[in-house]
């Protein structure tokens, strides 16, 4: 599903964010990206979403080299990739249902499709009773569930999560991880950057560790260390 | 997938509402600049219509009596063609004079109805070799009072002054309106940049979930175009006032003889309105396009 071949990303000032990274992530895998702040986790995720382009190497998503995609094709790539933010990035003037519907509306989905898919995804994330609430009326965990619903409502092949539990307490984080695990079981590939040792050690999934832009460990059923 | 018109209009309306004060400033600036721009055209049309008979170097007109005999006409023609001081002339017969009259008073059909070609005075429009005012006056005087001549009218200094004044006023209108149009373009740009910044999070989400660039851009561009169109409607209202209350006043029966014909025809007014609308669209598309390509694209 995702393949990196000798990928190097260099920012201004010769800061190497990712160095000669090569790996494969299969369909339906759940992968944790771990490492200290500034190790390259967020850059890794931004490269997969084509928010960044590597200086060297190639990145393949679903068999396509996304580095050579024309800029007009990038939106169509992103429709196959859901994105979950640490700070949720919900629109404060829209209700829960409107926030989720927005993701479908802006890619031109017809109204009848939106009316069908939004309640279904809110049911999946456990927010059926909160459809008319505004983000300010929700807890942090509920806001992250809305964010997940928005990322998954279009049924993407890949879900990228950048520190999705970073702003949540441990108990709420467990609920969010259960939800991501449930989504992963539908066949969706999940790549999650995290600092949360407890979650990684509990879930025992594939762990890719980055240190100053270099992949120093790629371990199946790994722990945080 | 195409953008839904409902979505585009809703987003455009929300942008205008959120930036209400800046939108109002933009609309007013566009309206005033287009009003001045259109006013320049209306004023020029009116002056051209009023001084039409003096164009092409014509310095004086010998009006003949409609009842003048063929011999009297021949004598005047002979005097014009043999004079070494006259470079050129045009004879406007009764039918042509009637056509000209119908053109000038096209908006007053009741007046045209009571006039027939037989009552129209034919005329010789004369271009002297030397356009000096004193020479023209003396030359024109030679035809005054001759048999068959009704009157001789020369393009005196007042008419020249009016044409000069019209040129200067027109230039002020044009320069002022162009400066304001440039300001309006910058205001549209600023307005859209402000809207883009206010909606930074929405735009970020749109890009992440796969909205195309055009889907994101169109509501912002529509915002600029809507502002310009509202401004154009305001300008039309202002131009109508100029046409009816200012220019129209001069064409009243009791106004100065000198200003007879100072009017704007319907087709000229419609053309000016279309021009104002076209300029509004061009200005808004330029301002919006710069804003969305410079500040919106990743």
What's this entry about, in short?
The complex is a heterodimer of chains A (225) and B (298). Chain A is α/β, with parallel strands linked by helices.
Describe the overall structure.
The complex is a heterodimer of chains A (225) and B (298). With 225 residues, chain A is α/β, with parallel strands linked by helices. Helix content of chain A is 32%, strand content 27%. Chain A has seven helices and ten strands. Chain A has a six-stranded mixed β-sheet, with helices on both faces. The longest helix of chain A has 15 residues. The mean pLDDT of chain A is 93. Chain B is an alpha+beta fold. Helices cover 68% and strands 8% of the residues of chain B. Chain B has ten helices and four strands. Chain B has a four-stranded antiparallel β-sheet with strand order 2-3-1-4. In chain B, helix 2 runs antiparallel to helix 10, helix 7 runs antiparallel to helix 9 and helix 7 packs parallel to helix 10. The model of chain B has no long low-confidence stretch (mean pLDDT 82). At the A-B interface, helix 2 and helix 3 of A face helix 8 and helix 9 of B.
Output the keywords:
heterodimer; A: alpha/beta; six-stranded mixed β-sheet; 7 helices; 32% helix; B: 298 residues; alpha+beta; 4 strands
Order of helices and strands of chain A: EEEHEEHEHHHEHEHEE
> Helix share of residues of chain B?
55-70%
Mean pLDDT across the residues of chain B is 82
Task: Output mean pLDDT of chain A.
Answer: 93
């Amino acid at each position: 599903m995702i393949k990196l071949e000798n990928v190097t990303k260099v920012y201004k000032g010769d800061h190497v964010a990712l160095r000669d990274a090569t790996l494969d992530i299969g369909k339906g895998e759940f992968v944790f990206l771990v490492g200290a702040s500034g190790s390259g986790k967020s850059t890794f995720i931004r490269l997969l979403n084509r928010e960044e382009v590597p200086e060297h190497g190639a990145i393949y998503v679903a068999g396509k080299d996304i580095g050579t995609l024309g800029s007009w094709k990038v939106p169509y790539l992103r429709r196959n990739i859901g994105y979950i933010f640490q700070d949720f990035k919900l629109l404060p003037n829209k209700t829960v249902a409107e926030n989720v519907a927005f993701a479908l509306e802006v890619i031109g989905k017809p109204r009848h499709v939106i009316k069908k898919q939004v309640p279904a995804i809110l049911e999946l994330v456990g927010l059926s009773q909160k459809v008319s609430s505004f983000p300010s009326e929700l807890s942090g965990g509920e806001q992250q569930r809305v964010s997940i619903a928005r990322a998954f409502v279009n049924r993407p092949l890949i879900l990228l999560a950048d520190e999705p539990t970073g702003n949540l307490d441990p108990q709420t984080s467990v609920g969010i991880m259960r939800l991501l695990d449930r989504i992963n079981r539908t066949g969706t590939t999940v790549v999650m950057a995290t600092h949360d040792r407890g979650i990684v050690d509990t879930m025992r999934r594939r762990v890719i560790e980055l240190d100053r832009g270099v992949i120093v460990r790629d371990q199946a059923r790994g722990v945080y260390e | 997938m195409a953008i839904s018109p409902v979505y585009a209009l809703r987003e455009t309306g929300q942008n205008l509402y959120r930036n209400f004060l800046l939108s109002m400033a933009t609309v007013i600036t566009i309206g005033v600049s287009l009003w001045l721009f259109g006013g320049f055209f209306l004023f020029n049309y009116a002056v051209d219509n009023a001084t039409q008979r003096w164009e092409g170097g014509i310095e004086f007109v010998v009006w003949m009596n409609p009842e003048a005999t063929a011999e009297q006409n021949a004598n005047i023609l002979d005097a014009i063609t043999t004079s070494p001081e006259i470079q050129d002339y045009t004879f406007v017969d009764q039918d042509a004079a009637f056509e000209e009259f119908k053109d000038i008073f096209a908006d007053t059909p009741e007046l045209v109805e009571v006039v027939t070609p037989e009552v129209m005075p034919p005329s010789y429009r004369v271009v002297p070799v030397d356009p000096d005012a004193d020479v023209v006056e003396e030359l024109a005087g030679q035809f005054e009072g001759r048999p068959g001549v009704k009157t001789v009218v020369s393009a005196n200094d007042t008419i020249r002054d009016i044409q000069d004044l019209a040129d200067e006023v027109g230039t002020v209108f044009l320069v002022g309106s162009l400066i304001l149009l440039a300001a309006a373009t910058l205001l549209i740009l600023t307005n859209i940049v402000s809207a883009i910044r206010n909606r930074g999070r929405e735009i970020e989400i749109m890009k992440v979930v796969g909205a195309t660039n055009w889907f994101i851009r169109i509501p912002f561009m529509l915002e600029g175009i809507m502002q310009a169109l509202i401004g154009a409607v305001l300008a039309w209202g202002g131009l109508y006032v100029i046409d009816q209350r200012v220019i129209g006043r001069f064409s009243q029966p009791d106004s100065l003889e000198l200003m007879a014909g100072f009017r704007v025809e319907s087709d000229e007014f419609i053309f000016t309105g279309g021009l104002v609308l076209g300029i509004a669209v061009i200005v808004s598309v330029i301002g919006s396009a710069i804003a969305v390509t410079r500040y919106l694209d990743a």
